[in-house]
Amino acid sequence: MLELHGLAVSSGVAIANAYCLVEPDLSFEQRTITNTDGEIGRFQQAVGQAKLELQEIQALAEKKFGEEEAAIFAAHLLLLEDPEFIDGIILKIQSGLNAEYALHEISAMYIAMFEAMDSTYMQERSADIQDVSKRLLAHLLEVEIPDYSRISSEVIIVADDLTPSMTAQLDTKYVKGFVTNIGGKTSHSAILARTMGIPAVVGAKTATQSIKHGEKIILDGTFGKVIVEASPKMFEYYESRQRAYEQSAQELEKYRTLASVSADGYEVEIAGNIGKPEDVEKLIEAGADGIGLFRTEFLYMNRQSLPDEEEQFVAYRTVLERMQGKPVVVRTLDIGGDKYLPYLKLPEESNPFLGYRAIRLCLHEQEIFRIQLRALLRASAFGNLKIMFPMIATLEEFRAAKEMLLEEKQRLLQDGILVSDGIEIGLMIEIPSAAIIADLFAMEADFLSIGTNDLIQYSLAVDRMNENVSYLYQPHHPAVLRLIKMIIDAGHSHGRWVGMCGEMAGDDITIPILLALGLDEFSMNAATILKARAQISTLSKEKLAAHTDQILRLSTASDVEQYVQEFLLG
After folding, report:
1. pLDDT tens digits, residue range 107-149?
2. Rounded distance, CA 501 to CA 288, Å?
3. HEC profile for 312-325?
4. Burial of 36 per CB tally in 10 Å (0-12, 13-18, 19+)
5. 494 among known catalytic residues
6. List 188, 362, 476, 477, catalytic entry
7. Three-class DSSP labels, 159-176
8. Strands lying side by side in the sheet with 2-5
9. Residue 362 catalytic?
10. Catalytic: which of 104, 362, 476, 501?
11. φ and ψ at 147, to 5 degrees?
């Protein structure tokens, strides 16, 4: 028996024959070209063919996963329209290089630039350039790219890496999971695997060398393991785990229409996170109590210019109307860090996560901010809108943002435009300074929403996308839990509700702790809602609360996890 280990990026168990992806031969030689016009025409024809293919793949991805997940292909199409990228290749051809080598030269330059960036997220975006370049090269060489959508038997994909376009073509009726040699938790293939609901392990290093095409393997996406040449007893064990996993998923269906209530009658709100209006349907299907985080930056990304007020108004109104009076918490523009808008021409920063981003950018770029605020205010008449500002570090920032919102509201009312009187205004607590003075914010805000992804990152000084320090990204670190308690207590002491929209809100180890601390709203991805509601229904808040002091006295994250497993979930 051989056991391979990698990163567990999408949970579950798969047992099937390995389907080893064989990459097409895209080798070529450098040649000198005399007919440069003809060579440019050949290149432009390849660009046109690639565009048509990507448009088809994007449509397929939108149908399967929704517009947010399919946005990567919009980015690929933008690259094919990027003058710097395309014109750079044409200039190389005009100098006498053949199109294949010119493409190689320019794409290699872009890939090296992205890989040299400090952010792991940006480094992983080099895969997008590789994907587009490979597609262009295949057309130039007249080599057919394999059609992975034609797989017609149950398999586990084994590959060095999966490009976004490969992943989008996988049919989950037959593809039961995948394992790759390389990749990270933030890679597009990992994100799409979670959206598709299939187990996946990335970064297994020697998967393609150790696994033979057609042999039966076991993929454990929960613990990041791949088992080759397993014994009959091992197959039996994992088959029982697989059946239990499938049965558990079926049993969750009954919670779709039930209230989010603990075993002792404590009612909470289990909401969902979205990026675009199209994502609302998944939340409705999952029976979400509302939307706890509408990431509006996705309306600004993968396009050539800023969305205008009318376009934003229509998007916000659509979401509010579809939720039929259920609360919708909208986060104002959170650009910067790992989210880049090329058309804004923002300055390069050595540490963008601590730099010019989110509310800092909006308070400076006031016209952009005010357009969004006006669109939100106009949409408020169509539903239950709540607005929150991201990355607030000081009271002055919150006051300034709130003042602009109220100014725009007054202008709209003066123009005779209907605006709701019931809009709640809050903020995301994701910076330690805001957590420490949460009591002061609670005096002026209507609600507090804990953004744990950044709160953990900033509290423990760890880049959450950097694999080299990933061991320090500890959601259950005592310091993080104490900050969360501080925020919840501060909000409740002033009669404010407190929510959470980070990954922790849907984590089965964290849910008992958050319930014990009195969190009012848990917001998560649609796929986790039923599981969270089912778990909460089995827990007694009163009994859990008796463990709070003991949990907060524990020394390490592993101590906390062990305690929860033994005393709260045992």
Report:
1. 998 888 877 776 655 666 677 888 889 889 999 999 877 667 6
2. 13
3. HHHHHHHHHHHCCC
4. middle
5. no
6. 188
7. ECCCCHHHHHHCCCCCEE
8. 2-5, 225-228, 216-220, 13-20, 155-159, 175-180, 200-202, 7-10
9. no
10. 501
11. -100, 100
